[in-house]
Structure formats: structure tokens, C-alpha cells
Design goal:
Length: 185
């Protein structure tokens, strides 16, 4: 099957590639019940050595710059309590951690979670964290521009491989809150 974006050798339905996904991502795909059929979640094999956005786009197609999204883990702190959340923004933008995220989490301070905490709590690899399969109790803050993008390239839970998903899927994921202006300039 041909991928709807990028120039990948092959795209396969994610339910056919469960062994290539981390356990939480595979479990989420296995038990999928979103408005979009699980077969529309596509897996593409990628080389982790070219995972950097600029190199990746050069290799797999310039159209990916406008249709790739990054999922980052943030920690919001207030009164000794810490809340982990994930943020999904288009790759050409940055997460507004000190504005939109802090306000949404009701935190006094918000920052990117340390790598070992983000990977340990998500059970995903650094550079491959994806909104599909995150812990159910985490808020998932999604920039509205991601939801409005027809097809979005995201991580697969591992550094090797990516998922291509209809943007509207993200609004229906567990804990999802769609926000204007989460991704900035």
C-alpha cells in the first residue's frame, strides 16, 4: 500500500504490525474503538539514524514538514504535586509550555519532563513517543492545527518506524483536549 503522505517504500495497517510497536501502542491499536477504523492507522518503517526532522524530511518528502507532529511529555507542578501530560503539536511549531500548557494543567510551573521519566512512564522510546497508547490518566493536549491536518506522521513508540494517522483521530484519544495556540511559531 502507498502512504498518503511522504515517499515511503510501503505503508501497512498498524494492526498488521503489532510486533513492531511498543506494548502500550500495540495494546491501543489492538483494542482500537475510535471513529476511524484501526486499518487507517498506517505503519511505515523508518531508519532511526535519520530521525532528526530536517534529515527525515529531506529523505522522505518535503510534504512531511507540514504534516508531521511531535509528541512531548511535560510535567506540571503545583504545591509539591506533579502531573505528567503529553502535548501534540505540528513539527514546525514549539509547545507553549509556560503559557497554554501551564494554564491548562493549573500548574504554577511546567517544563519538559526529564527523558528517563518520560520514557519510563510512557513505556516508549525517546524520539518515538506517540499519543496512541499513553497512560490513560495523562491529559493529552492537542493543538487544533494537528486535528485539522488530513494525515499526520507521528512516532510509533519506537525510534524505528512511524505511524501515519488521520488528524481527526487525535481529538478522540483518551484524555484528549484540543487547544488553540498550543503550538507556537
Amino acid at each position: 500500500m502507498r502512504a498518503p503522505i511522504g515517499n515511503f517504500d510501503e505503508a501497512r495497517p498498524a494492526p498488521d504490525c503489532l510486533d513492531l510497536l511498543t506494548p502500550p501502542v500495540a495494546d491501543a491499536v489492538r483494542s482500537w474503538h475510535g471513529d476511524v477504523p484501526a486499518e487507517q492507522l498506517l505503519y511505515v518503517d523508518t531508519d532511526p539514524a535519520i530521525a532528526d526532522t530536517a534529515v527525515f524530511v529531506e529523505h522522505h518528502g518535503a510534504d512531511l514538514l507540514d504534516s508531521s507532529a511531535n509528541c512531548v511529555v511535560v510535567a506540571g507542578k503545583r504545591g509539591g504535586e506533579s502531573t505528567l501530560a503529553a502535548c501534540l503539536v505540528l513539527s514546525r511549531t514549539r509547545v507553549d509550555v509556560n503559557g497554554v500548557v501551564r494554564k491548562q494543567l493549573g500548574a504554577r510551573k511546567a517544563s519538559f519532563a526529564p527523558m528517563d521519566l518520560a520514557t519510563g512512564e510512557s513505556a516508549m522510546e525517546y524520539g518515538g513517543i506517540t499519543p496512541i497508547g499513553l497512560p490513560a490518566d495523562w491529559p493529552l493536549l492537542v493543538d487544533s492545527a494537528v486535528v485539522d491536518t488530513e494525515w499526520v506522521l507521528i512516532g510509533s513508540g519506537r525510534r524505528r518506524g512511524k505511524l501515519i494517522v488521520p488528524g481527526k483521530v487525535f481529538a478522540g484519544l483518551p484524555g484528549a483536549v484540543v487547544l488553540e495556540g498550543l503550538g507556537t511559531g
